């Protein structure tokens, strides 16, 4: 018996290495499925906001499902004729328990940076792949234009002098510095308190910084043809998107999700009710399409709450039609490339996946009977049996290239996919539970979801802490945070990383120093 246990222990690392090799060396998290208590069934990347964490605590439908009444010994199976009718109905709708192997989508592109940066490249060089000088010069022009018109309307400001390009870079540097200091008030730099920084404070006076902050604009005025609520920041978002597209080619596997932006779980658990109400003032939802092998954010989509009516964000945030619209917007440039997109329950739907398949986009998504649009799916696969099956057991129905999987691991987890063959098997390896068999799609989902969760845990700590009141400015600084994170990812993939191995915090410090024009000093360790 001991020999058998030893063999199993020796075999587990080999299986894990094989799984990693299949999915770009991604580590499979131990708490993705059923290992961390009652909340472990949640889908960590579906919803990262504080308001929706509680409502999405369990994507497993095991608890909320109502199983049929227990049968006594010798009693006939209840609803046997109904079950037969249900199977006939499902067969009529095209769903079958007969499984067919299918090859994975072909992908011949090579992901990664499109430009080879020299070993001497600085943090500023990587950042300016996305925010070049021409974008900064436009901010200078628009800020000065806004200051002029503002003073014509409300009176002259004798302390104002037109901002210059070096000052604009310094202004950005001051605000970006809050991503490493984690202090929400930029003005703390000039204070004598814990967050003060004398070397940074000497570059620009606090009064000058506050003047630039008062008049800062990306687009000073609305044109007569503009109706979009984000017109003041949309040109910057478009420029940023162009930079992302030209600087990086994503891998085949990608994830659609809401990244952590300002709802720090520790903050939410410890903040006062007044602070929590203040955080809920954010009037937009930020979604991204993200490369699951590197963490590089490929595309940003901002859904703005433009009112409290039925089409506002508050009314639609849990409705499939909003999330389908978000998914279509994020994937509008992905058609014909055979990408595999992983989605959370609110996006996963048969209609959307079939629409994407016609465009050459393949999907693998987690299903929830409460959050997903289950139209067209077989009802028998959405209900749980009275007696839970053994861990690792699963059932599958297939319709064309689409597979609906119900897999059990301390709860029923359902997946919809057209990217993975239903007959191929995978394995989830747990430290405590050992090997849990599963369909290949489940293993893939766990691996890529785990990587994105680790990205959120690591890089969300370096989002800019400055919290302006204006919505367009909030969107702007979140977008700048994403640009800095993407710049660091490219830096780590370049030869420059082998010259000076900066951590993410050191990279941020280095970028701030270069934006402020300080002399070349190594960041603090």
Automatic annotation (TrEMBL):
One CC-aspect GO term: nucleoplasm
InterPro entries xref list: PGBD, PGBD5
Biased composition (Low complexity): 47-59
GO biological process: non-replicative DNA transposition
Biased composition (Basic and acidic residues): 99-109
Gene Ontology MF terms in the entry: transposase activity
Superkingdom assignment: Eukaryota
Disordered: annotated span: 30-118
Domain PiggyBac transposable element-derived protein: 122-488
The protein's name in its UniProt record: PiggyBac transposable element derived 5
Organism: Bos indicus x Bos taurus (Hybrid cattle)
Lineage, uppermost ranks: Eukaryota, Metazoa, Chordata, Craniata, Vertebrata
């Amino acid at each position: 018996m001991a020999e058998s246990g030893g063999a199993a222990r020796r075999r587990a690392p080999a299986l894990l290495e094989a799984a990693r090799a299949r999915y770009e060396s991604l580590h499979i998290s131990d708490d993705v499925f059923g290992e961390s208590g009652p909340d472990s069934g949640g889908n960590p990347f579906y919803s990262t906001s504080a308001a929706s964490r509680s409502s999405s605590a369990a994507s497993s439908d095991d608890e909320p499902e109502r199983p049929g009444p227990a049968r006594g010994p010798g009693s006939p199976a209840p609803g046997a004729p109904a079950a037969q009718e249900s199977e006939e109905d499902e067969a009529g709708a095209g769903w079958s328990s007969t499984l067919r192997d299918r090859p994975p989508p072909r992908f011949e592109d090579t992901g990664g940076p499109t430009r080879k940066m020299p070993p001497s490249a600085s943090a500023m060089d990587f950042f300016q792949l996305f925010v070049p000088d021409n974008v900064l010069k436009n901010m200078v022009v628009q800020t000065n234009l806004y200051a002029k018109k503002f003073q014509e309307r409300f009176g002259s400001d004798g302390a104002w002098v037109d901002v210059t390009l070096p000052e604009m870079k310094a202004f950005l540097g001051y605000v970006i510095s809050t991503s490493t200091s984690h202090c929400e008030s930029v003005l703390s730099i000039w204070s004598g308190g814990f967050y003060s920084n004398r070397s940074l404070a000497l570059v620009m006076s606090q009064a000058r910084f506050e003047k630039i902050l008062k008049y800062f604009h990306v687009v000073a005025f609305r044109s007569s043809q503009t109706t979009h609520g984000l017109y003041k920041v949309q040109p910057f978002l478009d420029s940023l998107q162009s930079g992302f597209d030209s600087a990086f080619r994503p891998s085949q596997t990608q994830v659609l999700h809401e990244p952590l932006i300002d709802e720090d779980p520790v903050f939410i658990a410890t903040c006062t009710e007044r602070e929590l109400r203040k955080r809920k003032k954010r009037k937009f939802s930020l979604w991204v399409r993200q490369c699951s092998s590197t963490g590089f954010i490929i595309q940003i989509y901002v859904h703005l709450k433009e009112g409290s009516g039925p089409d506002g964000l508050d009314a639609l945030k849990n409705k499939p039609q909003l999330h389908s619209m978000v998914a279509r917007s994020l994937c509008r440039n992905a058609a014909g490339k055979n990408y595999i997109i992983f989605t959370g329950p609110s996006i996963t739907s048969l209609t959307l996946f079939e629409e994407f398949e016609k465009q050459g986009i393949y999907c693998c998504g987690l299903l929830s009977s409460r959050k997903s649009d289950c139209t067209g799916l077989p009802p028998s696969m959405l209900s749980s049996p009275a007696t839970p099956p053994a861990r690792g057991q699963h059932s599958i129905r297939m319709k064309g290239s689409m597979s609906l999987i119900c897999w059990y691991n301390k709860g029923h987890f359902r997946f919809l996919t057209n990217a993975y063959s239903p007959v191929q098997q995978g394995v989830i390896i747990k430290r405590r539970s050992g090997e849990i068999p599963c369909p290949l799609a489940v293993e893939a989902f766990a691996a890529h979801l785990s990587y994105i969760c680790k990205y959120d845990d690591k890089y969300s700590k370096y989002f800019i802490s400055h919290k302006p009141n204006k919505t367009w400015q909030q969107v702007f600084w979140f977008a700048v945070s994403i640009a800095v994170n993407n710049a660091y990812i490219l830096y780590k993939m370049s030869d420059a990383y082998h010259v000076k191995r900066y951590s993410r915090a050191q990279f941020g410090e280095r970028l701030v120093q270069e934006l402020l024009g300080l002399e070349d000093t190594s960041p603090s360790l």
